[in-house]
Design goal:
The chain has five helices and four strands, in the order βαβαββααα. The protein is an alpha+beta fold. The strands form two sheets. A two-stranded parallel ribbon has the order 1-2. Bound molecules: flavin mononucleotide (FMN).
């Protein structure tokens, strides 16, 4: 696919370890973007319920528009299960976020992530409780 464009390509999505980074570079990517793997780093502002969900290696993820009004991937929680993850009735981006804010705040006050966005990509296995610098050094080609 790289031949189809004449600009540098950055690989993104599901890359969570050094082998994934190496593979993307071997296939010709100019760089690799990693997001989800950093969510357990102490520098990340990830809340406790979100951290707990990320540590559950069996937790399924789905695209949902319930939290912001736009489609984004998160770990399935009570709101997504009970309403269905994609709803035409969700307020349009970014209004869904403020519509949900009181319920979310109420649940988070007791440590619950039932009504919070638990953002995560398709590969959460690279999430580690180490500093972002350390994780970056582990991901970088040696
Ligand atoms: C907390 C969080 C917030 C994100 N917010 C956005 C966003 O606002 N817009 C967007 O296009 N992608 C967003 N993403 C998805 C990133 O584009 C994605 O993490 C990146 O492509 C790397 O993929 P990976 O998370 O599988 O490593 C977000 C991801 C996370 C984990």
């Amino acid at each position: 696919m790289l031949q189809a464009v004449d600009v540098p390509v950055i690989a993104a999505g599901g890359v969570a370890d050094a082998r994934g980074v190496e593979a993307a570079l071997a296939l010709g990517a100019a760089g690799v973007q990693v997001g989800t793997a950093y969510l357990l780093c102490p520098e990340a502002t990830t809340r406790p319920a979100h951290r707990a969900a990320l540590k559950d290696t069996d937790a399924p993820t789905m695209l949902t528009n319930l939290f912001s009004g736009g489609a984004a991937r998160g770990i399935v929680n009570r709101l997504m299960r009970e309403l269905g993850p994609m709803r035409a009735e969700a307020p349009e981006f970014p209004l869904a976020s403020s519509a949900l804010a009181p319920l979310r705040a109420w649940a988070e006050a007791s440590g619950s992530g039932d009504f919070s966005p638990l953002w995560a990509g398709q590969n959460t296995l690279g999430c580690r409780e180490i500093s972002a610098a350390e994780l970056t050094r582990e991901l970088a080609p040696h």
